[in-house]
Amino acid sequence: MLQLRDLKKSYRSPDGEVLLVVDVPSFDLEARGQVALEGRSGSGKTTFLNLIAGILKPETGSIVFDGEELVGASESRRDVFRAQHMGYVFQAFHLLGGHTALENVELGMLFGSGVDRAFAEHLLQRLGLADRMRYRPSQLSLGQQQRVALARALANKPKLVLADEPTGSLDVHHAGEALALTRELCAEQGAALLLVSHDHDVLEAFQTRYDLSKLNRAAREVPA
Amino acid sequence: MSLMRGLSSCWRIARRSLRQHALSSAVTVGSAALASGLVMSVFALSAQSREAFSGGETGFDAVLGAKGSELQLVMNTVFHLDTSPGNIPWSLYESAKTDRRVDVALPYAVGDNYQGFRIVGTTEDIFTEFQPREGEHLEFTQGSRAFDPAYREAVIGSVVAQRTGLRVGSKFLATHGVTGAGGPEHPGEYVVVGRLEPTNTPTDRVIWIPIEGIFRMDGHKLTGAGEVYEAQPGEVIPDEHKEISAVMIRTSSSGAGRMLEFEINKGDQATFAWPISESILQVFDKLGWVVLVLEGVALLVVVVAAASILASLYNTMNERRKEFAVLRALGARRHTVFSVIVIESTTIAGLGALFGGIVYFGTFSLAASIVREKTGVVLDVGMLHPALYWTPIGMLGMGALAGLLPAFKAYRTEVATTLAGGGY
Questions:
Q1: Which residues in chain A have Cβ-Cβ distances shorter than 8 Å to B19?
Q2: Are B75 and B197 members of one domain?
Q3: Average pLDDT for B162-184
Q4: What are φ and ψ of residue B251, in 5° steps?
Q5: Lower CB density within 10 Å: C or N end of chain B?
């Protein structure tokens, strides 16, 4: 489903130095597959996920998703593609404070397949938030916010869910619970999961896992 | 994504944002409403006032009066405002009446009032010749009639009836002076025999009596012959002693009007104000710069309102940059977040224009009631003026323009750096 080849991305530092952040020769992910990437600080994990999501554009390389080459696509096309085929769970969740839990989930549908309130409600019910749909993020616990973020990522029925330290803000108990739910829901919805974490408990739950600092040749050049 | 679905998505986000920032949105809508209401009121009021004050020729196209200001003459006889510029001898009325260039001539004598409402002495022809509006005549309410020039009888306008409580059969004493400021009362009661249907013109505020009654009113001294003469009961008043305030004239043609104007105004005995509407228009033309300033100020207020829309949105941009980054991460394109902001600013302006209609209604109604109270001229709040549709359209345009700068800021949101905690 996802094939990455010779992917390179660099930034220019404030003093003008060009800093290579991602240099991945090859990476593949099967449809419905669940893969964990071990990413230490400075390993370029967020940049790597942003490249796959089409939020950032690499200097060179190829990202083929379901047969479509994304690297040469316009920013607008990548936005549409992301809206239709990908979900994103952020470490800080990034729920919108002015929206209720249900409205936040609906935002995940807005730019893709269109709002399906029944499905949004189904996702929240499935995640045990049936009685919290009208709550705003500030009225929810961190664990509940994480579940709303997961529901939002799944709202557009994506083929791939990208999760950047999705349990990083939770305590051990809630992190395990959240991870199980994330994996379960992705499998249930038929979405592949690419999760980045530095938490060994999280990483060990996955059969397929890679060390991003080995996968990304640029990571080895960045001090951890 | 189709255009309609795209707009629907933008509207959905914009609506929630406006709800989230309800207080600042409401304040900005309020300022836009005041601005648009003010613009509509100023433009509609100035246009309608000009039309109302210059449009009513009342069946006459000229006024003959004492040497002096044409405007004062017209204000005094057509709008029953201001003081009379002086009197003219009865002979001028007689001359006008027999002039081939004059179709109708009616004498007016003013100088008294009842509870502030002017008493105008004239002939009973007023009820057939006067036209409150083109083609219309004064109409009596049921059971009332025109005065008999041989008696102390009066016909009252509808506002007089409403405000003073006078009705057919009522008796009253005239007070000296054209205002109700406590002048001495003239002995000799007048009885109301007629009440006129409302005309929505200054006529509604007039009490009509026979002109003979003015001549014979106790205390009135006539100086038409250059010497003081006081009418005695039972004695015919010689014409040379009679004097009147003005003669309302309908000329036979515009050429006749022009000739009379030339002839009379070159002399020093009288003023011939012709055509009536031109005298009023001259005032509006002289005051044109005041109206321009008012209109300019009103338009400036719209610009200020647009600036406040810009400021209120721009000030929220920093706190909202994460929101835009999240939307972009969820697949919103740059032009989508751009559109969200423009829709928000246009919505604020649109709501402002909508509530501006209420402000307009209130402001215009208040102004119209004051104008009616002071002049009898009726301004119609329901009359369509181009400002009533151009202002909302203009407000929407200004709102959209005001949204461009903050929208551009939203457009430039970089997702990766913003979500990572960086700035623009």
A1: 98
A2: yes
A3: 84
A4: -80, 160
A5: C
pTM score, whole prediction: 0.75
Q: Which of A74-78, B198-202, B222-226, B292-296 has the highest mean pLDDT?
A: A74-78
A·B CB contacts under 8 A: 75
Examine residue B280 and state whether it is found in any structural domain, yes or no: no
- Given a cut of 90, whether residue B192 has pLDDT beyond it is yes
Provide the token pair at A107.
Answer: 């935002």
- E strands along chain A, which residues? 2-12, 18-29, 34-38, 60-65, 68-69, 86-89, 160-164, 192-197, 208-211
Candidates A80, A103, A156; nearest CB to B16? A103
Tell me which residue in B13, B325, B331 faces A83 most closely, judged by beta carbons. B331
How far is B407 from chain A, CA to nearest CA, in Å?
A: 17
Task: Give the tens place of pLDDT for each residue, A162-205.
Answer: 999 888 877 777 788 888 888 998 998 899 999 999 888 888 88
Q: Do B333 and A79 touch (CB under 8 A)?
A: yes
| Inside any domain, residue A2 | no
CA A10 to chain centre: 21
Q: Which amino acid is at A195?
A: L
Q: Look-up: residue for tokens 């009332």?
A: B144
Distance CA A220, CA A107 (A): 37
Helix axis angle, A101-110 to A117-126, nearest 10°:
130
Is B187 found in the same domain as B63? Answer: yes
How far, in Å, CA of B65 to CA of B101, rounded?
17
Task: Search chain B and give the residue with CA nearest A57.
Answer: B416
3-state secondary structure of B113: strand
| A50 backbone dihedrals φ, ψ, rounded to 5° | -65, -30
Instruction: Write the CB contacts of B337 (distance below 8 Å, at least 6 apart in sequence).
Output: B324, B327, B328, B407, B410, B411, B413
Q: Is the peptide bond before B275 cis (omega within 30 degrees of 0)?
A: yes
Which residues of A are less than 8 Å from B20 in CB distance?
Answer: 97-98
Classify B264 as helix, strand or coil: helix
Report d(CA B371, CA B365) in Å as an integer: 10
Query: Judged by CB atoms within 8 Å, which residues 276-335 of B form the interface with A?
Result: 322-323, 325-335
> In terms of Cα–Cα distance, which of A30, A68, A3, A81 is closest to A186?
A30
B130 within some domain: yes
pLDDT in tens, B288-344: 788 888 888 888 988 898 898 888 888 888 888 888 999 999 999 999 999 999 999
